[in-house]
Amino acid sequence: MNNLPQVKVGIVAVSRDCFPESLSVDRRKALVKAYTEKFGTDAVYECPVCIVESEIHMVQALEDIKKAGCNALCVYLGNFGPEISETLLAKHFDGPAMFIAAAEESQSNLIGGRGDAYCGMLNASYNLKLRNIKAYIPEYPVGTAEECADMINEFVPIARAIIGLSDLKIISFGPRPLNFLACNAPIKQLYNLGVEIEENSELDLFEAFKKHEGDERIPAKIKEMEEELGEGNLKPEVLPKLAQYELTLLDWVEAHKGYRKYVAIAGKCWPAFQTQFGFVPCYVNSRLTGMGIPVSCEVDIYGCLSEFIGTCVSQDAVTLLDINNTVPADMYKESIKDQFNYTHNDTFMGFHCGNTNTKKLSFCNMKYQMIMARTLPEEVTQGTLEGDIIPGDITFYRLQSTADCQLRAYIAQGEVLPVATKSFGSIGVFAIPEMQRFYRHVLIEKNYPHHGAVAFGHFGKALYEVFKYIGVPVEDLNYNQPKSLPYPTENPFA
Fold first, then answer.
1. Among 112, 181, 390, 435, whose Cα sits 20 to 30 Å from the Cα of 196?
2. pLDDT tens-digit profile of 180-201?
């Protein structure tokens, strides 16, 4: 994954001047030692120049961690801490910040060695709110050195996503296809998030594609594809065009990312794409996503933005799927009912034409796109990747801007079941607890589009914190609630 930021957390310890500075020094050293022993040293830097007790110390610490290349900040309350100076650290640091505090070590040292950081965290949070400063505070932010090391490690993927968004450019091609207004993308919230967007015509992309005819790199790219597909290479005749298209996109990214470090693509894939380019882009989309450059279908701008966030959090390939169809009753009865603890309405099929990376498929075959071939010549719909999605834990999620430019998001953890889909496309049988209620009172009630991003693993905790940090109101940050917690719109008599 070469399209993601590397996180380096600067750990700055603070101290209130009426407390022994040695408390913060010793506790900072213990914290760094605990982190190093458990997780390694690449992601943290111990600021040695001072313990921050004043605004002057704050400036010195900021200069030091900036010089060290830190792009994330951990403000560590080794004792009560100076509420003004410590919150100014977060205010003037250019990147995501977290606040944690030291627990007391021993009953035998509660006179000279008591730090009161439990109390100081309250003042820190109050001052952050007064100054309108964003900061990540863990669920329980006070702990031993080992517990605080775990908190920093949980902060790293959150920080990676926030840093990535601040340097992201989304490149889109073409307007949304007819009847896909559900993927609407008011761009104001992109700018509010710090994301740049470059909107291009499909004709611009087609021109660039034509200029790559005969590119000397095409044979090597075809060989890559052949090796990846193996026995699933059922349409070898389309690989030259797919290789040409992949090189076109990769060159476009390099030529157009400008001052931004990271890129995601919202691509047009039909209906004119096939007749003009002569293939479908699904397989190429899957390959770029596997490289860490998420590509969404149907010019779904917030879909590719969601994919990028999930890639940052998971450091793995993600996919974008339609929340597509119900599981037939006979399939549920035969393969799910007595084997898994899910009701029929907890299950559904997630599907897309063929955009899921080969590493996330149990098997794969290069085929033609059946839905498109119903209205187009089959020969121009070659290039889709078919296969059942690998079983295992997943997180289904999406960040969306509404038509009136309000941010909202959903997160639902579940799994892909080891059940043969007996269908086509990149597809899996998904199970999410209380999906029936989530479908009605979140996806329908909140007007979400049919696309959802899928991360392979349970990443709800980190995604929830990312969405909170970037400004999604808690009331618009939805999840699949248990039966004991009704939705606001749920009929209590149903």
1. 181
2. 665 667 889 999 999 999 999 9
Tokens of 492: 């209590």
17 confidence band (pLDDT: 50, 70, 90):
confident
Which CATH number applies to 9-165: 3.40.50.720, 3.40.50.10940, 1.10.10.10, 3.40.50.620? 3.40.50.10940
Instruction: Tell me, yes or no, if the pTM score tops 0.85.
Output: yes
What are the boundaries of each domain within the chain?
9-165, 167-479
> Which of residues 23 and 263 earns the better pLDDT score?
263
